[in-house]
Amino acid sequence: MKTTFAALAFILAAAAAACNTVEGVGQDVQAAGQAVEDTAEDVRN
Fold first, then answer.
1. Confidence band of 5 (pLDDT split at 50, 70, 90)
2. What string of DSSP letters covers the chain?
3. What mean pLDDT do residues 1-19 have?
4. pTM as predicted
5. What is the distance, to the nearest Å, from the Cα of residue 15 to the centroid of all Cα atoms in its chain?
């Protein structure tokens, strides 16, 4: 029983960490896209 609980706790912790990582990557990609868009606007004007 303790082993099952420990394994479940580890899986949940890993899943929570993965969610934070994916969210961070999404924010980085969004910021990069914004930078490209800003540069394109500067070139166009």
1. confident
2. -HHHHHHHHHHHHHHHHHHHHHHHHHHHHHHHHHHHHHHHHHHH-
3. 81
4. 0.56
5. 12
